[in-house]
Amino acid sequence: MMKKKSINTFIVLVFCLNIILLVLLKGSNDVLDLFLRLLALPGLIWISYLYFKSLDSSIDSDYSEDIPSKSNFESDRAPESQFQDLIKLSFVFLKDLNKNFEASIFFLQPNSDCFEIKDSTSDNFFEKISTSSEVLKNIAHKKKSTIIYQKDNKEIWEKIYKDNSQRGSECIIIQPLFLNGFLTGLLVVHLDHFSDLNPNDQLMIEHLAAIISLEILDLDALEKTINKKENQSRVFDLITQINFKHSESDIFNKYRNLIHYFFKYDCLTFSMREADSNNANIKLIDGIKKYLPQDNHFNINGTINGLPYVKNCKINSSNNKYNLFRFSSSEQNNEAENNFLGFPIILNDKIWGAILIERFNSQVFNENDEKLLSLICKAIQSNMLWHIEYQNMYENAIKDGLTGLLNHKTYIDRAREEIERARRFQHRLVFLIFDLDKFKRINDTLGHPYGDYVIRTTSNIIKKNVRSIDLVARYGGEEFAVVLVNTNTEAALTVAKRIVKNIEEYNFTMDDSSINMTISCGLSEYPSDSDQLKDLIQFADEGLYKTKDNGGNDVTVYSKIMS
To answer: How many C-beta atoms lie closer than 10 Å to residue 266's C-beta?
Structure first.
């Protein structure tokens, strides 16, 4: 790109020189002058030809259907080494999404006609993928992920993946990566068997690609805005250290430290809007906490901290004077003379939160302050998207979709962990299995929606009767499993009987239909009954069946069966 600019500059300079020659020599009849003018004229014509030719070539280079040309890509350079941690984080995300995924990220390098591998979780991907592939052009045109099955498209498969054993069950998901509208990379995900592909996996991969692109652009913009290399490093280190497993408070604290490094302020406030409300919740406040509301809530209307929500744009008090209170009209003094700078935090096209920094003096925020805080705000947005996507994925992976309780698999994993903890600290556990009595008649007579309502309500009753440290899971169908931590059989029996009584007394009503239910329970104790998870579940189950045999609506202790 720089070479082409230099050539064009040279052409223009020579063009101007020839014009000057013609002007200076105009009107002279000297033989030497006439000779120089004759030389200048063809030079002028030649230079004009080269200039217009360069214009044509630049127009041609700006045209791109699907795969960008070299000159197109040079305007948006490939990610440098500072993005390596971002790629690693993406791979962790994919593994958490589906443990069977193997992934590679490819970027189109300048002066190249192929995508070159940047990083990978497997050696089975080829180092380069040609841009000439019609399949890739179609994917780029659609701008969406595409699933390619080995048995259906061997041609493209053999250009991407080295292992070409004819299993026929493998598939590859190709997700294009765009920067500033140009196709600059590919996220390629391999799966041994297409049956392991979950319904939401493809959508999550598309979300991931969007986040990667946003993050790269934000980092690149920050690099250009922050001049000092040590400051660049500070920003890069922070952003790449934050991952989707961090809590909201962790993310806000890390960005608080970053903002504190770059800005002098008296108060910094992170807030989040409450759903379907004009109120916002203070998530973090740093500095002078004057007039801070006791419940950490404030109305976005009529307050300085509410301005980013109301205006839905940058707020700089140096541009406009706002006669507003910081958090509420109950404040003793009006803070209208404060200087403040704020931005909304936008997620999925909605105002999710806001950031506001204040100075209780006459020092205004300038244009550079605006630019830097805007970029930091964009980085926060990217990190919160990572966080929310991961939380959604995590919730879907570990919880039952109907009740919100732990699912069967997660219950087994957590129960094992509790046994190990109990073994280490020498305390007891009690395992309970609940099963709704005669549940089948509900689905048969009142329908499955009513049955779902009964299951959801039952799960809520069970959850209300145990502690937050206890495990509660939907074990399957109308069965529920509970682990009471650091509890003996006697105390657990009291809890179980209370749950049985609450279910019996509850009037299940939906759509003008009302019914009463009962529930049965069996329980076993660690370590007195067994120290093995399999046995403890089985023994609790035997207690449950004993309760059923006796008419239900009761609790049976396994050890009493055996005595």
So the answer is: 17
Higher pLDDT, 39 or 446: 446
Q: Is the pLDDT of residue 376 over 70?
A: yes
Name, in order, each residue with C-beta under 8 angstroms of 443's C-beta and a sequence gap of 6 or more: 450, 451
> 279 Cβ partners below 8 Å, 6+ apart?
273, 297, 298, 299, 300
Residues 388 and 253 in one domain: yes
**Which secondary structure element, helix H or strand E, spans residue 503, and what is its range?**
helix 489-505
Summary mean pLDDT of the chain: 78
Residue, of 232 and 536, whose pLDDT is higher? 536
- 277 contacts: CB under 8 Å, gap ≥ 6: none
Question: What's the distance, Cα to Cα, between the start and end of the chain in Å?
Answer: 87
The string of DSSP codes covering 110-166 is TT-SEEEEEEES-TTB-SEEETT-HHHHHHHHHTS-EEEETTT-HHHHHHHBS----
DSSP reduced 3-state for 252: helix
Same domain for 304 and 329, yes or no, is yes
Strand ranges across the sheet with 267-273: 297-299, 279-287, 267-273, 350-359, 339-347, 315-316
Catalytic residue among 478, 504, 505, 542: 478
Nearest to 359 by CA among 341, 345, 377, 333: 341
What's the whole-model pTM score? 0.53
Co-location of 116 and 6 in the same domain: no
Give me the CATH number covering residue 525: 3.30.70.270
Q: Any idea which of 240-254, 284-298, 417-431, 466-480 has the lowest mean pLDDT?
A: 240-254
234 inside domain: no
SS3 101: coil
Confidence check: pLDDT of 470 > 90: yes
Per DSSP, what are the bridge partners of residue 350?
Answer: 347
pLDDT more than 90, % of the chain: 29
Instruction: Judge whether 478 counts as a catalytic residue.
Output: yes
C-alpha span between 460 and 413 (Å, rounded)? 22
CB atoms within 10 A of CB 303: 22
